[in-house]
Specification:
Elements (H helix, E strand, L loop, with lengths): L8 E5 L4 H12 L3 E6 L2 H14 L4 E5 L5 H15 L4 E4 L14 H26 L4 E6 L12 H21 L4 E8 L4 H8 L3 H14 L9 H13 L10 E4 L8
Parallel strand pairs: 1-2, 1-4, 2-3, 4-5, 5-6, 6-7
């Protein structure tokens, strides 16, 4: 059975770049109508315009900060009105920041949790009244950092682990409305990752690539947002996944395994 999302009404946060932009572009290419939300207006409008030109679906852009409750609630309400309803929301907006557990400050902790966890909660709550009308799909974004330790980023890992736990609870509580909620755990080559690579000298880059080959058994490097992740996103917003909820969906080439 082919994945069919033509006519679906989807909101994507963090849609100005990376996974959010790639997902919105592929959704529109497959005939869905999309509203993206971000704080990077220039990039957000550019992505929406380019994705709409690819069609046949259309992409519109709205400005909102996911950490500001009134602002993100209004944007999601406005987005649902623009779309004529809501079938799915993909809560991609988030940040990743390095730091040792012994060093980061209260301000750094609170800022990261505000964007990653509180922002996800606000977006889910704002989408709920719209998804209640006919059921639908919520995709929240976890990380392997929330499932396994790494050399740095305890606050990032903690925020992503919290998102995974929160999503399980949302899936349980909102199943009575026909709403399904899943956590996507990606290991994907985005602009942010490319910027990290560009900062490395030749020796450090070679060491990093060797480490990635050992960590990721399938291909030895991060996946592509269009060819590797977007098809999974399509499935999870489609009716083909209507009996899947409360799960961790890893798209990571085997970087981490969920048992």
């Amino acid at each position: 059975m082919p994945i069919e999302i033509r006519g679906k009404k989807i909101i994507v946060t963090g849609g100005a770049r990376g996974i959010g932009a790639a997902s919105a572009t592929v959704f529109a290419r497959e005939g869905a109508n999309v509203v993206t939300i971000d704080i990077n207006d220039k990039a957000g409008h550019a992505v929406a315009q380019a994705a709409t030109q690819e069609g046949p679906g259309r992409v519109s852009y709205l400005h909102a900060d996911v950490t500001k409750r009134a602002e993100i609630f209004k944007a999601i309400d406005d987005g649902a009105v623009m779309l004529g309803g809501l079938d799915a929301i993909c809560c991609v907006a988030g940040v990743e920041r390095p730091g040792l557990a012994e060093d980061f400050t209260e301000v750094e902790w609170d800022d990261l949790f505000a964007i990653n966890l509180k922002g996800t909660m606000f977006c889910n709550q704002a989408a709920l009244p719209h998804l209640k009308k006919s059921g639908g799909s919520i995709l929240n974004f976890g990380s392997d950092a929330g499932l396994r330790p790494g050399p740095t980023g305890a606050h990032y890992g903690a925020s992503k682990a919290a998102i995974i736990a929160y999503t399980r609870q949302v899936a349980y509580e909102w199943a009575k409305y026909g709403i399904r909620a899943n956590s996507v755990v990606p290991a994907i080559w985005t602009e942010l990752y490319q910027e990290f690579r560009d900062r490395l000298d030749a020796q450090a880059l070679a060491q990093h690539e060797d480490a990635m080959r050992q960590m990721i058994p399938l291909g030895g490097k991060l996946g592509d947002p269009i060819t590797d992740l977007a098809p999974v996103m399509m499935f999870l917003v489609s009716d083909g996944s209507k009996f899947i909820t409360g799960q961790i969906i890893s798209v990571n080439g085997g970087l981490g395994q969920v048992r």
